[in-house]
Amino acid sequence: MTNSLIPVITIDGPAGSGKGTIARQLAAILNYNYLDSGALYRILSLLSQQQGIAVDDLQGLVALCEEMDVRFGFDAQSSSNSGSIDELQTNKQPENVSVFLNDNEVASDLRTEECAGRASQLAALQEVRAALLEKQRSFRQSPGLVAEGRDMGTVVFPDAERKIYLTASPHERALRRQKQLKKQGISASLGTLLKEIETRDSRDQNRAVSPLRPAADALLVDSTNLSIEQAVNRIAEIVRGGH
Ligand code: C5P
To answer: For residue 110, what is the domain's CATH number?
Structure first.
């Protein structure tokens, strides 16, 4: 199968919209490969910080992008599911996916808001986005791919067969983030989280290159008042072909 015939489902949207959880569930059920494109920007953020590469050192940043060998430890092929979309409604999938950078597991290092904030700064650089483009496309492997991020449907996989744009109010997204942090034993004020989310949204939406926006042919889903299960059901409907 040539690469362009391999089906792709894209799920784009802002931080906290629930796209990560939903994309993982969808990939597991379909036995598709999975790409968390935000993890690539976060890894670049982490590595550049560790190595003292400044946010304006384009050459250094591009070299890091080229060196990065990233793999997700979400083994869709070994899933015991039949691959039926109908199972999406009841299936319980793992919340977390391992992220391997050169064979080292780094997922927990990528979760901080500090790492995300720097990632969002780096993600505004044309050179960085160009350096990560082919790397992202290389995840398009048989039998298919579920890709989540900000520009999956608009730039990276414009020919995807299903495009979803998932959103939720900033307040709801900050609340979700607060709950997630609480589970990790970290307390954070709602006001601070809301501010961080709004700063990141604004940077992602207003940058000149690949801004966060729905593709013209994306279907919009607002998850503000939906549980994860309801959001998954709604997206399952869309993937099945209903609107
Ligand atoms: O999705 P996540 O929150 O992990 O992404 C971290 C940051 O990486 C985002 O705020 C955004 O700036 C950037 N990003 C991007 N394009 C993507 C995925 C993430 O610009 N496709």
So the answer is: 3.40.50.300
Using DSSP's 3-state secondary structure scheme, residue 52 falls into coil
Prediction pTM value: 0.89
The count of structural domains within the chain is 1
CB 149 near ligand 1, within 6 Å: yes
Q: Which atom of ligand 1 is nearest to the CA of 151?
A: 21
Per-residue pLDDT tens digits for 40-54: 999 999 999 999 999
Tell me the CB-side half-sphere exposure of residue 157, using CA atoms within 13 A. 34
SS (H, E, C) 63-97: HHHHHCCEEECCCHHHCCCCCCHHHHHCCCCCCCC
Q: How many CB atoms lie within 10 A of CB 238?
A: 16
What range does the domain containing 71 cover? 3-240
- The answer, yes or no, to whether any atom of ligand 1 lies below 6 A from the CB of 200, is yes
Where are the extended beta strands (E) located within 77-204? Answer: 99-101, 104-105, 145-149, 162-167
**pLDDT tens profile 58-108:** 999 999 999 999 999 864 444 444 455 454 444 445 456 899 999 999 998
